[in-house]
Specification:
single chain; alpha+beta; six-stranded antiparallel β-sheet; five-stranded mixed β-sheet; 34 helices; about 45% helix; elongated; DNA-binding protein; DNA-binding
């Protein structure tokens, strides 16, 4: 007969969490490790160590934080129930005397989730909440219970004198008992008997019942004076209020449950609140085609904005603060350059940084600049560039919405600076988009209903400010998704859905998808009866939050799919502009890269939108001439790329600037100016505005200046001249904007929220290692003398070890060994020796499921396995 079976053949109830885990199959253990990845860091040696780790405070807190509201309410009810509690007792605490069919139907799912995550173990007749979770959720004066219930009568009377307890028993109309324990039990029996309790409360004064009504839903503690009023004395004399400290009383848990009708919670929430459509009527729904077109337009604007930011920083961006990040002044300047508000500018800057397009150059005069990856990025198709930005935003833990706020030390949080990482940000972003994906196509959500749904799914997040952060992250996600073009008019676009890895919606299951996600599989070895498995239609698996594609390959595929969806919606780049007589050019859409690059040098952007307006000025034309273009080149370029004739004023402007360009030459001595026309030099010397340049004549055609060549060039240009720089050989220097690039940089790595979720390969290897280690630690052994304590290695002399191993080779029996590897790590193993020679034993290792060779001197001891 197995040790796990009763004489009648039934499986014995597990006596510990380790035994409950041992009864699970590999799929169930893998589900536990996937739900609680901290348990696998590092991999436990056996199931006993896994159970111990699952009961540590840090791990339990993390597991409780990832429960949804109803699963957490179930755990809270178990914390105030008996230990152990039956399923029927738990059901009574959740549904109350009147019963609640919805709660009763959803409860099996919540219990199954708690079991799967190893927070609850045991059968339906003996449900046990792990001790650490019970301590965290149980009521105390320092940490009131979330249920609002106080201590039991037994707990509240633990320090009370026997005489006082007998007085309470007598006042309640109960016969006296022999000891305090039986007296507390008699009071408990009275308070849990509905009929007798109703009769007792019927005798209470109205003021006393009013006091009970104020305490019934918590907090259960109240203050009384040394000489309480008559109605309070009536409650104190009958144990309906019990003293806990001088001047403090508490409402016993049993009394509160009677007044509540048996409910542990005032309101239970078995079904998540639905995400409602936006609009005053709650029926706003747009055309999916309009949503996609709007989102695609915004995606194009997002690309243009990021490109403009990178162009603005192309020759070297703002300086890096000593503490890191952008200064407030530089952020304002960037916002003006992009024509957006400062929070939106911070978003674009952080997005470019997350995508690896900008970084610090790391030089002595440290500044921000574009990275080499930017040059590769800008040459890619527009849809691919957008997918890169959107994918980086979705996975980033840096949170632009925090810019301008204060950290824990009351320091201002700067864009691109430290302190902006929030590890929960990617999860919130994906979940918000998943909720949008569950709505019918083209429907925008009511933001408040999204926040309510998120609060239901993650009700316990530590301090209040952390919960507030999740709400703010959700609001920022809705705003940023619209800016980026993931959504259009508030609804998720088709390319946004592809980026998330969500399936296309179907009318038949829109409503069901709005409510939740697939069911959680039963936990083998710890199952509920069949009649307990019903669940409300469409209710989500407790604690389940879709997180999108997990591995990099899947996410890359999702980005590619999003780019394919977006590409047909983006306008095709144009190879022409429309020249106007007012010295402007209108680009009716995005321009091809070569045309846009030349036009950016030849003209200044005057306005943006669906069409971009460029203005030609003497300074912009001179800029093109400085870059090495001739007047004939500019005339040919404009004629080739304009759908309208080149206006005469523009042709005159180009010729006039070209005629004067280079007439003055500026070179390096300190600096000098030379010109073949001495009248021009006389004019410059006579101009009072040139005083700051401190010019003096060296020759009829040469002026010297006490300024560097760059300052002299800018000064003469400010006076209305068109000087050209020349080299030491007297040749005109062609000046092009030098693109400043940082050394190769990798994008910032997201800061994970705890250990990463293990993949299937790691889970399978971990489960196999834990099983093998558990086999080695629990296998019955023939050990002479005193057996080693649990977890200790067997100890035998070298001669005994060699003799036992050689005998096992002849008999083919398996052995239990203790082994210390080259790194000093000790482990227990079950091996079947095959050969012993040269100080090594070759054996089939049941722990590793392979043949291995072990040095005999590293084996601490051996023991034969018992026959059964």
């Amino acid at each position: 007969m197995s040790s796990d079976e009763k004489p009648d053949g039934r499986t014995a109830a597990p006596r510990s969490l380790a035994e409950a885990l041992r009864a699970r199959d590999d799929a169930s253990l893998a589900a536990l490790l996937r739900a609680r990845p901290d348990l696998i860091t590092p991999v436990p040696t056996d199931l006993t160590q896994l159970a111990t780790r699952a009961g540590t405070r840090a791990s339990v807190v993390r597991a409780l934080e990832r429960l949804d509201r109803f699963a957490l309410q179930t755990a809270e009810a178990l914390a105030v129930a008996g230990d152990p509690a039956s399923y029927d007792e738990l059901l009574g605490l959740m549904t109350g005397d009147d019963g609640d069919a919805t709660v009763a139907a959803a409860l099996p799912r919540a219990v199954r989730t708690l079991r799967e995550q190893a927070l609850v173990w045991g059968g339906d007749d003996r449900l046990r909440l792990v001790r650490t979770a019970r301590e965290l959720l149980s009521p105390s004066p320092q940490h009131p219970s979330p249920t609002g219930l106080g201590p039991t009568v037994q707990e509240a009377t633990a320090g009370m004198s026997p005489g006082r307890i007998q007085e309470l028993v007598a006042a309640a109309g109960l016969p006296s008992t022999h000891d305090a324990v039986s007296a507390a039990a008699a009071l408990t029996a009275l308070f849990t008997d509905r009929e007798r309790m109703a009769k007792l409360l019927g005798q209470a004064p109205a003021e006393a019942r009013e006091v009970l009504s104020r305490l019934v839903w918590g907090p259960p503690y109240g203050q009384v004076t040394a000489d309480p009023a008559t109605h309070l004395r009536w409650l104190l004399d009958r144990g309906l209020l019990l003293p806990t400290a001088p001047g403090t009383v508490v409402l016993p848990r049993e009394v509160a449950l009677h007044l509540r009708g048996g409910r542990a919670h005032r309101e239970t929430e078995p079904v998540p609140p639905p995400v409602e459509p936006a609009g005053p009527t709650g029926t706003r729904q747009g055309s999916p085609q309009v949503v996609d077109a709007t989102a695609a337009g915004q995606a194009y604007t997002a690309l243009a904005t990021v490109e403009e930011l990178l162009k603005d920083w192309d020759e070297g961006g703002p300086a890096v603060l000593r503490a890191g990040g952008l200064s407030v002044r530089d952020l304002k300047r960037t916002a003006v350059a992009l024509d957006v508000s400062e929070p939106v500018a911070a978003f674009w800057v952080e997005l470019a940084y997350a995508a690896g397009l900008i970084a610090s150059d790391g030089e002595a005069d440290e500044r921000y600049a574009a990275t080499p990856a930017h040059d590769e990025w800008r040459e890619r198709p527009a849809a691919d560039r957008w997918a890169d930005l959107a994918g980086a935003w979705l996975a980033a833990t840096r949170t632009a919405g925090l810019v301008g706020g204060r950290d824990a030390k009351d320091r201002t949080l700067a864009a691109l600076g430290p302190g902006l990482d929030r590890s929960v940000a990617p999860e919130v972003r994906r979940r918000v988009l998943a909720l949008l994906a569950a709505l019918p196509a083209g429907t925008s959500p009511d933001p408040e209903s999204v926040l309510a749904r998120l609060r239901w799914e993650r009700p316990l997040r530590g301090p209040q400010q952390e919960d507030d952060l999740r709400s703010r992250l959700a609001r920022w996600t809705l705003q940023e998704a619209e800016l980026l073009g993931v959504t259009g008019r508030g609804a998720l676009s088709s390319h946004g859905r592809a980026l998330l890895g969500a399936p296309e919606p179907h009318a038949a299951d829109d409503a069901a998808r709005t409510q939740g996600s697939p069911d959680v599989p039963d936990t083998p070895g710890d199952k509920l009866p069949v009649h307990h498995r019903a669940a409300p239609a469409g209710a989500p698996a407790a604690g389940s939050v879709p997180s999108g594609p997990a591995d990099p390959q899947a996410r890359a595929a999702a980005r590619a799919a999003a780019a394919r969806r977006l590409a047909p919606l983006l306008p095709e780049p144009l190879d022409h502009v429309l020249l106007q007589a007012d010295l402007t050019a209108v680009a009716p859409g995005p321009l091809q890269r070569p045309l846009a690059d030349v036009l950016d040098v030849l003209a200044d952007v005057e306005s943006k939108g669906g069409a971009t307006v460029y203005r030609f000025t003497p300074a912009s034309v001179r800029r093109a001439l400085d870059a090495g273009r001739s007047a004939s080149d500019l005339h040919a370029f404009l004629a080739a790329h304009s759908r309208t004739p080149v206006p005469q004023p523009l042709a005159y402007l180009i010729d006039d600037v070209a005629r004067r360009h280079g007439h003055l030459r500026v070179g390096a001595a300190s600096a000098y100016v030379r010109c073949d026309d001495d009248a021009v030099l006389n004019e410059i010397l006579a101009d009072k505005r040139s005083t700051a340049l401190r010019l003096r004549r060296l020759a009829p055609t040469v002026l010297a200046a006490q300024a560097d060549p760059a300052a002299l060039l800018e000064g003469l240009r400010a006076l209305g001249y068109a000087p050209a720089a020349e080299s030491a050989e007297g040749d005109v220097v062609i000046t092009r904007a030098d693109a400043r690039r940082t050394p190769p940089r990798t994008p910032p790595e997201p800061v994970p929220e705890g250990p990463p979720v293990p993949d299937a390969t790691l889970l399978a290897a971990a489960v196999r290692a834990i099983r093998a280690g558990d086999l080695a630690s629990t296998a019955p052994r023939k050990t002479p003398g005193t057996p080693p304590a649990p977890g200790e290695l067997p100890r035998t002399s070298p001669a005994e070890t060699l003799a036992t191993v050689q005998a096992a080779v002849l008999t083919g029996e398996a052995l239990w060994i203790g082994y210390v590897n080259a790194d000093g790590a000790a482990s227990q193993r079950v091996i079947a020796p095959v050969r012993v020679e040269g100080g090594f034993v070759t054996a089939y290792d049941h722990t590793a499921d392979e043949v291995r060779t072990y040095p005999l001197h590293r084996i601490t001891g051996v023991a034969e396995l018992a026959d059964d």
